[in-house]
TrEMBL record:
Name listed for the protein in its UniProt record: 5'-nucleotidase domain-containing protein 3
The UniProt record lists the keyword Hydrolase: yes
Entry keyword Membrane: no
PANTHER family for this protein: 5'-NUCLEOTIDASE DOMAIN-CONTAINING (PTHR12103), FI20020P1 (PTHR12103:SF12)
Similarity annotation: Belongs to the 5'(3')-deoxyribonucleotidase family.
GO molecular function, one term: 5'-nucleotidase activity
Taxonomy, superkingdom: Eukaryota
Family annotation (Pfam families): 5_nucleotid
Keywords from the UniProt entry: Hydrolase, Magnesium, Metal-binding
Cross-referenced InterPro entries: HAD-like_sf, HAD-SF_hydro_IG_5-nucl, HAD_sf
Length: 284
């Protein structure tokens, strides 16, 4: 079996020559696989193998499993977050935050009026990505801080693997670059921002949309200034968002009738409950 590797659109392509036996004769075929297809194929094989295994009869297939034993009878206090935990927001909230942030960019920071034509793309960004403030790139890192080729974007445009390696010199990003160096004699702030919550998804959508507009129209911009403008715009519109959501709860929050029963069950079992949130009291 021979393999020839090249790069297309930032994704590795493996050319495999292999034999397929058809009616007792060997036929030589050639097929092209991307690493994404190979990974998906391996995942499907593993999934099929797991499904073929039978669980013991005393195991609940819908149960929650942990690596360490946990006796919930010993847990006396239960704490909950509010946003995107107890409050299950609909996609309409992302559109609302995006539109409000876009208006503030125009009114407060004097961005071009044409950005009002930039519509939100709900399937573009996901939680967990990193944004390189210095280079103006949105990218995906794994748990070992390795760049995932094919998941690096400048604006809405994918960045090729060649350019990524040229910019970073290596696939693995130093932890000080991602998290900053907090040693006393090297108080360097991080060059990257981790998009750890779901409120950051429309924020990144707006950021990449505006960056793409600047690039397409040959408008020079500073990536860090753009990032701060968008971040401040989206965060400053939260009080407005709270007011709009409170006036029309059904449009933005999915009802969960089981929550009341669950809380009542915990209270009946003499559990103490508390709520941790940065949302204002009147909104909650």
């Amino acid at each position: 079996m021979s393999r020839c590797m090249n790069l297309v659109g930032g994704i590795k392509i493996l050319n495999r020559n292999f034999f397929v036996k058809i009616e007792a004769s060997n036929v030589f075929l050639k097929k092209t696989y991307s690493t994404r297809e190979l990974l998906k194929e391996a995942y499907c094989r593993t999934k099929l193998k797991c499904r073929s295994k039978k669980l013991p009869q005393d195991v609940n297939p819908k149960g929650v499993f942990a690596c360490n034993e946990l006796d919930l009878t010993e847990v006396k206090v239960y704490g909950f977050d509010y946003d995107y935990t107890l409050a299950h927001y609909k996609p309409t909230l992302e559109h609302l935050l995006y539109n409000l942030g876009r208006e503030i960019l125009l009114e407060k920071y004097n961005y071009p009026a044409e950005i009002l034509n930039l519509e939100y793309k709900p399937n573009f960004a996901v939680r967990g990505l990193h944004y390189d403030i210095e280079k103006g790139l949105l990218l995906k890192l794994d748990s070992f801080l390795q760049i995932q080729f094919g998941a690096v974007y400048r604006g809405l445009t994918p960045v090729t693997t060649e350019e990524v390696l040229k910019l970073y010199k290596n696939r693995i990003i130093p932890i000080a670059y991602v998290e900053g160096d907090m040693r006393a004699h090297k108080a360097n702030r991080a060059k990257m921002v981790h998009l750890a919550d779901l409120f950051s998804v429309p924020e990144m959508g707006l950021l990449c949309n505006v960056a793409e507009y600047f690039i397409k129209n040959h408008i020079d911009y500073h990536p860090e200034i753009l990032f701060l403008d968008v971040k401040n715009s989206v965060q400053s519109c939260h009080p407005i968002m709270h007011k709009i959501v409170a006036q029309n709860v059904e449009e933005f929050i999915r009802p969960n009738p089981s929550l009341r029963k669950y809380f009542q069950m915990l209270q009946d079992c003499n559990k103490k409950l508390f709520l941790v949130t940065n949302s204002p009291f009147h909104f909650v």
